[in-house]
Amino acid sequence: MKTMMEIRAIVRPSRLAHLRDALRDIPNFPGLTVMKAEGFTAPAAIGQRTVKEELVDYTPKIMVTVLAEAHMVEEIRRVLIEACSTGQIGDGLVWTVPIASMHRVRNGTDMLADD
Fold first, then answer.
1. CA–CA separation, 68 vs 87, rounded Å?
2. How many CB atoms are closer than 10 A to CB 80?
3. E strand or H helix at 16, and its extent?
4. Of 111, 86, 87, whose CA–CA distance to 100 is shortest?
5. Running DSSP on this structure, what letter comes out for residue 103?
6. How far is 47 from 100, CA to CA, in rounded Å?
């Protein structure tokens, strides 16, 4: 049985094209799903807020998700961090989630079964 993981990340929309190009350079990269998201950084991480920041609570972000075999997780995570880092608060987060089951919608094939 294959061990699959979901790699999720919240990143700046301005980094998406750079991220796409970097991920495509990974051999056998399985693909990427992109969703619009909004959020805010934990207040303790920011310190003093400006009036503008108080009026606009949520910042546009992008959530990306990749389903990949476990042996690819570290490389994908490294590329995500390198491609999306600006060194500023609000660059985002990357995390992984184990996949318990996964089936192809087209025909119900168990995607975790060994080929």
1. 27
2. 23
3. helix 16-24
4. 111
5. B
6. 40
- For residue 44, the model assigns a pLDDT of 57
Structure tokens at 100: 């318990």
Helix (H/G/I), strand (E/B), else coil: 3: coil
- Which three-class secondary structure string do you get for 50-84? CHHHHHCCCEEEEEEEEEEEHHHHHHHHHHHHHHH
CA distance 111 to 2: 8
Neighbour tally for 63: CB within 10 Å:
16
* Polymer length of the chain: 115
pLDDT tens-digit map of 11-40: 999 999 999 999 999 999 999 999 999 987
pTM of the model: 0.84
Please, how many CA atoms are within 13 Å of residue 114, restricted to the half-sphere of its CB? 1
DSSP one-letter code for 49 = P
